[in-house]
Amino acid sequence: MTRPEESGGAVAVVSGGSRGLGRLVVERLLGEGWRVAAFSRSTNAFVEDTLAAHPDRFWWQSVDLADPRRTRDFASGAAKRFGRIDLLLNNAGLLGRQELLLTTAVSRTQELIAANLTGPIVLTQACAKVMARQNSGTILNVSSVNAVRGYRGAAVYAAAKAGLDGFSRSLARELGPLGIRVNSIVPGYFESDMTTVVTDESRERIRRRTPLGRLADMEEIVDAISFLVSPRSSFITGQTLIVDGGITC
Ligand SMILES: NC(=O)c1ccc[n+]([C@@H]2O[C@H](COP(=O)([O-])OP(=O)(O)OC[C@H]3O[C@@H](n4cnc5c(N)ncnc54)[C@H](OP(=O)(O)O)[C@@H]3O)[C@@H](O)[C@H]2O)c1
Predict the structure, then answer these.
(1) Predicted confidence (pLDDT) per residue in 185-216, tens digit
(2) pTM higher than 0.85, yes or no?
(3) Whether the CB of 115 sits within 6 Å of ligand 1
(4) 7 CA to centre of ligand 1 in angstroms
(5) In the chain, domain spans
(6) The Cα angle at residue 76 between residues 95 and 86, in degrees rounded to 5
(7) Which atom of ligand 1 is nearest to the CA of 90?
(8) What HEC string does 131-200 produce?
(9) What is the pLDDT of residues 30-41, one digit of tens each?
(10) pLDDT in tens, 3-35
(11) Ligand 1 pocket, 21 CB below 6 A?
(12) Helices (H), the chain
């Protein structure tokens, strides 16, 4: 992700930094000298071990993206603790079990929209205010192949992720003049707690439909994230990068 030049290390805010993709990004950022503020709803052994190993460079709080006040407070807490915010990775997401729209409760719809769209928007607004004062920053939203292609049983999740992509494009226009880049990344399927709900039959179908014939390795997604948040992509904004082995082509 390119070694940060800020004194004390550049600062990243990572939502959902406790498990899966977010955890791997946190590990890579810390390994490259960044200071990292991460949150999720619950802690785990990774969070506790990392807090102990990097007390000056890793900060974690329990925050639910469905709570706008806690989400905003987290962003201002990160800026207060580390003095700046150079990167926001809107990684946290919620899929849950697949469910047809005809039987989806309104409360479930609200939960999915809050975690996958409203929460990231609230967090982005709070972090972008800090970045605007610095006249620099990078925002990367983690979307999904479900935003690009239809998937039975994931209509609300897909709507939220497609909304996030539209948000990235319009925000890139607003924040570009302030030196802030905004992009989306669309990962293909990779093994994580989120995909434990995918049946073996669906997993096989995904493999068959993917030109490269397999699911993504999480490291491959982190490599693409690394590019999009580094100076190597300094003229890229308002874009959606699909990293899916070709399943949507
Ligand atoms: N896995 C895939 O195949 C795949 C494919 C395409 C896109 N994606 C996207 O990639 C991102 C990472 O996915 P993943 O597979 O790594 O997911 P994961 O293993 O389920 O991890 C999700 C992370 O987000 C946190 N989180 C979930 N809901 C939250 C909430 N309401 N507030 C705060 N934190 C919350 C979780 O911690 P807590 O539960 O403790 O809060 C966890 O740290 C997501 O945006 C997902 O939609 C995944």
Answers:
(1) 999 999 999 988 888 998 999 999 999 999 99
(2) yes
(3) yes
(4) 31
(5) 11-243
(6) 80
(7) 45
(8) HHHHCCEEEEEECCHHHCCCCCCCHHHHHHHHHHHHHHHHHHHHHHHHCEEEEEEEECCECCHHHHHCCH
(9) 999 999 999 999
(10) 456 657 899 999 999 999 999 999 999 999 999
(11) yes
(12) 20-31, 45-53, 68-82, 106-113, 119-134, 155-175, 200-209, 218-228
pLDDT for res 197: 83
**DSSP bridge partners of 33:** none
Q: Which CATH superfamily is domain 11-243 in?
A: NAD(P)-binding Rossmann-like Domain (3.40.50.720)
3-state secondary structure of 10: coil
Model confidence at 234, pLDDT cuts 50, 70, 90, reads very high
Nearest CA to ligand 1 atom 17: 194
Q: Which of 60, 157, 167, 189 is flagged as catalytic?
A: 157
Give the number of the atom of ligand 1 that is nearest the alpha carbon of residue 15.
34
Residue 218 Cβ < 6 Å to ligand 1: no
Average pLDDT, the chain: 96
Q: Give yes or no: 151 in active site.
A: no
What's the pLDDT score for residue 5?
62
